[in-house]
Amino acid sequence: MSLLPVEEAYRRLVESASPLACTETLPLLRLARRVLAQDVLARRTQPSFDASAMDGYAVRSADATAPFRALRVVGESAAGCAFTGTVEPGEAVRIFTGAPVPKGADAVLIQEQAQVETDGTVRPTASVDFRQYIRDAGIDFIEGETLLANGTWLTPGAIALIASAGHTSLKVLARPKVAILATGDELVQPGEPVGDWQIVASNSFGVAAMVAEAGGEIIDCGIARDRAPDIDAGLTRAIDEKADIFVTIGGASVGDHDLVGKVFAARGVALDFWKVAMRPGKPLMAGRLDELTIVGLPGNPASSMVAATLFLAPLVRRLAGLPDRPLYRQGLLGAPMPENGMRTDFVRTRLQTGEDGAVRVIPLPRQDSSLLSTYARADALLVRPPSAPPARAGEACRFVVLDEWKGLAEHN
Ligand SMILES: Nc1nc2c(c(=O)[nH]1)N[C@H]1C(S)=C(S)[C@@H](COP(=O)(O)OP(=O)(O)OC[C@H]3O[C@@H](n4cnc5c(N)ncnc54)[C@H](O)[C@@H]3O)O[C@H]1N2
Ligand code: MOO
C-alpha cells in the first residue's frame, strides 16, 4: 500500500465522521463541555417584573426635575421582597438592585444623587430620565423563547442561561467511547516493576488525556502481549463495551511481532488505509468493523501522539458533536530548515511571540520519535510539506498547536 497524503487521510477518517446519534439526560452540574441534543426554550420570563438596576429610590421621574423637592419615603423594595403599594406624586420608595419597581414609580434615583434630609425625606440632586435604571420585565428572555438550538456547544455562559431559564437537566449528545489498547511484550503498566528489556507503557496515557480533552470517554483495555489472541481479546472487549472507536497503540509496522493489522484482517475489519505520508506517525491504520471505527496508532511515543493529535482528537470531537478546531496556524520559521523528504514532517517545536506580535516556530534539538522528553517540551508541530525546499529563518510556515491551553495561553 502506498503512503496516503495527510490531507487525504484526514478527509477519509475525520471529515467523513458525523456526531453520534446517542443522547443522555444530564443535570446542570454535568453539562460542561457537552453538546445540546434538544432546543432549549425559556420556561420563564427573566426578569418576570420590572427590576431596579441600582441601589437608590424608586420615584416618579416628574418628581425628580429641578427645582428639586423633598420626597416622602413610604416604604422599601428589596430583592425578593417587593413594596406592594403605589408610589404617589411626592413619594419615593427605598429600592435595591434586583428589587421590583413598585407601581407608580417610573425611574430609579441612585442614592449618590439623593440627599437624605434629617426628617427622613429624600431630595434628588439631579434629574432622572423616564425608565432610568429600570430593567424591563423580559429584557433577558421571555417564556417560550428559543434560547439555544439543538447542537449548541455548552459554554459556561450557556449553562448559566439554561439554569436561569428554569431547567434542571437537559438532553445532550453522549460522549464517544474510545477503547484504548496498548500492545507489546516489552510494556509494563506504570507502577509495575520494570524488568530487563522492558519499558513503561506511556502512550496510552497521553492518548487518553487527548481523547478526554476532545470530549471522549475512555475504556482502558490495558496491555496486550504480542500475541494475536491478546489483541483479538482487546477488540472483543471494545465491541462488548459498545465503544465507538477502538484505538491500538504499537504493532502497526512491518516487524514479525507487528500483529495488529493481521488481527484486524482476521476479524474482517475493512481497512481504509494503512501508512500515511507523515513523519512521525507513518504506520497509522484506519478502518471499520460494523459501527466501530478502528484507529491503529504507531508505537513510537511521538508517532502515536502526533497521529492522535492530527486524526484521533479531531475524530473524537466530530463524534462528540463539537465544532472542528482549526488545526493549522500561521507563523514564522524561527530557524532555517533543510529540504524535506517525501513525507510531511511534523517537527516538535517551541513557540515564541516576538515584540512584533508574530509567532516564531523554533525546532527543538532532538527529533527522534522515541523521545517523550522532546515531545512534552514542545508547544507545537512545525509542518514541513512533502518535498519542501530549504527554508530560511523568518519565512512563513504553518504549525499545529499541541495543547490549546499551553500553546495559546502563552503565545497568542
Ligand atoms: N523495517 C521497517 N521498520 C520500521 C518501519 C518501516 O517502515 N520499516 N517503520 C518505523 C516507524 S516509522 C515507526 S513509527 C515504528 C512503529 O512501529 P509499531 O507501530 O509497530 O510500534 P512497535 O514496534 O510496537 O513500537 C515501536 C516503539 O514504540 C514503543 N512503544 C510501543 N507501544 C508503546 C507504549 N504504549 N508506550 C510507550 N512506548 C511504546 C516500543 O517499545 C518501541 O520502542 O516502526 C518503525 N520500524
Ligand atoms: O513514522 Mo515513524 O512514526 O517515523 O517514527
TrEMBL record:
Protein's GO biological process: Mo-molybdopterin cofactor biosynthetic process
One term of GO molecular function: molybdopterin molybdotransferase activity
Cofactor(s) this protein requires: Mg(2+)
EC number(s) reported in the record: 2.10.1.1
Domain of life where this protein originates: Bacteria
Reaction(s) this enzyme catalyzes, per UniProt: adenylyl-molybdopterin + molybdate = Mo-molybdopterin + AMP + H(+)
All residue ranges annotated as the MoaB/Mog domain in the record: 179-318
Membrane-spanning intervals of the chain: none
Pathway this chain belongs to: Cofactor biosynthesis; molybdopterin biosynthesis
First-tier enzyme category under EC: transferase
Gene3D superfamilies attached to this UniProt entry: MoaB/Mog-like domain (3.40.980.10), MoeA, C-terminal, domain IV (2.40.340.10), Molybdopterin biosynthesis moea protein, domain 2 (3.90.105.10), Molybdopterin biosynthesis moea protein, domain 3 (2.170.190.11)
GO cellular component, one term: cytosol
Keyword annotations of the record: Magnesium, Metal-binding, Molybdenum, Molybdenum cofactor biosynthesis, Transferase
This protein's record includes keyword Oxidoreductase: no
PANTHER family for this protein: GEPHYRIN, MOLYBDOPTERIN BIOSYNTHESIS PROTEIN
Function (record text): Catalyzes the insertion of molybdate into adenylated molybdopterin with the concomitant release of AMP.
NCBIfam families for this protein: Glp_gephyrin
Family to which this protein belongs: Belongs to the MoeA family.
Protein name: Molybdopterin molybdenumtransferase
Source species of the chain: Aurantimonas marianensis
